[in-house]
Amino acid sequence: MVADQWYDANGVWTGSATFLEDGSIVMLYTGSTEKSVQVQNLAYPEDLNDPLLLKWVKYSGNPVLVPPPGILPKDFRDPTTAWKTSAGKWRITIGSKINRTGISLVYDTTDFKTYEQLDTLLHKVPNTGMWECVDFYPVSKTLVKGLDTSVNGPDVKHIVKASMDDTRIDHYAIGTYFDSNGTWIPDDPTIDVGISTSLRYDYGKFYASKTFYDQNKGRRILWGWIGESDSESADVQKGWSSLQGIPRTVVLDTKTGKNLVQWPVEEVKSLRLTSKKFHMEVGPGSLVPVDVGSAAQLDIEAEFEINKESLDKILGDASAADEAEEFSCQKSGGSTVRGALGPFGFSVLAHESLSEQTPVYFYVAKGKDSKLKTFFCTDTSRSSFANDVVKPIYGSSVPVLKGEKLTMRILVDHSIVEAFGQGGRTCITSRVYPTKAIYGAAKLFLFNNAIDATITASFNVWQMNSAFIHPYSVEAVRSLSRT
User: Which of 180, 178, 145 is nearest to 160 (CA)?
Assistant: First the structure.
């Protein structure tokens, strides 16, 4: 859609589509008016038989929603996909704020043209600022599958996710939805949406994400926006800025019940080319080149085991009891700072001289409770010689259950590294801009910087093809859809 009406003259912004029971589709989207007031608008597909829905018709009665009393004109945006209430109405939520309290407003409708604002809020959290791109959807407590947005019941939890305009971080929480009054409460208020301790979809460069339900494959798919980490002048020079990440399936972790798990959609495997399988034992302080040829486009799936003697040693060492409380991926110095049980993992997009490299790694430490805590990190501090690039160290702790091996998957694509720890319990997306470790000069290394531990690594590495996007005529697309 093009910003060509008074109600979206300053921008066609985030929107969401809803499938109706008769098979038709409606789209609600935020427009910024000629006076920069944020309003919600309605659009329909021009041709419902077009499988790509390339053209949309804006409703003649737009806007259908304007900022309600008490909401500032620039604090009312990003409507969700609608879901059905028990009363048979459609319900949406829209992000906003009142002073410093982030909120999600709730509206009911029967025709998407006229709306009733509920007296209650879906949710609010003080001191979190403006909530953008709010998302709300059900997850199954028992099945590893996606659910239609309208599903509810005793075996269902609901996710509230919001993108924090102040911090540019996507936070989510798991909780219980009350259909009768359109409210939601978190299971654990100490990790409520948007506060510093709350869960994130991704601990790297990942923002303004939205999910949708794929009814054909019974899965919920998450799309995230990956911004740049270099300068605006560099963006202008290369002629583009920002992109979408690899789409991910998202489900509740039925093993923990306390977090989501995300995983690249299965279609990514269609890009896999040649593969190599490795099994290596890596001693303390070791760095091993992995012979896969060019490492600019890779898919890596790996599992690690720390040898039992090393684990027994640290578990019996009383002096190591506070390390887990003190460790932080962001503040503990990156992959070169050595501990008893880490860091260990892969250096991707690495030059043979290691002058440029991006390590993705685990770090295991003992806590005050004498239990081991695992962290999953990505260190971009040595990723590029370019001096106009932000190079943070990303990461967080990752749940590891008894009997589980440590596992990671890494998708490498020239300037993007997407890492998934423990089946996607913790995810990290990084933008890196190597100047030497590019194309055929990009290499892969396995490393173990632990002081005491020997690590066994078993992993597969696939060379990845590019996803060639070919333009199709409308007739060609329709022909494909009929086959």
Answer: 178
Q: What pLDDT was estimated at residue 479?
A: 62
Please say whether the beta carbons of 423 and 144 come within 8 A.
no
> What's residue 233's pLDDT?
92
Measured CA distances, 284 to 230, 448, 451 (Å): 35, 6, 5
- Residue range 322-349: mean pLDDT, rounded: 92
DSSP, res 435: S
User: 127-160, pLDDT tens digit by residue?
Assistant: 999 999 999 999 999 999 999 999 999 999 999 9
One-letter amino acid at 306 equals: I
pLDDT of 47-87, one tens digit each? 998 888 989 999 999 999 999 999 999 999 999 999 999 99
Residue owning tokens 């199709």: 472
Cα dihedral sign for 45, 18, 16, 37?
positive
Average pLDDT, the chain: 95
Instruction: Give how far Cα 40 sits from Cα of 15, 29, 111, 124, Å.
Output: 9, 6, 14, 21
CA distance 461 to 451: 27
Closest CA to 330 of 425, 140, 200, 451: 200
DSSP string, 153-199: STTEEEEEEEEETTTTEEEEEEEEEETTTTEEEES-GGG-TTSTTSE
pLDDT at residue number 477: 59
Count other C-beta atoms under 10 Å from residue 319's C-beta.
8
CB 83 within 8 A of CB 212: no
Q: Look at residue 324 and give its three-state secondary structure.
A: helix
Collapse the DSSP code of 301 into the 3-class scheme (helix H, G, I; strand E, B; otherwise coil) and give the result.
strand
Distances in whole angstroms, Cα of residue 144 to Cα of each of 161, 201, 255, 267, 407: 20, 18, 10, 18, 19
The closest alpha carbon to 360, from 442, 247, 447, 246, belongs to 447
pLDDT band at 475 (very low <50, low <70, confident <90, very high): low
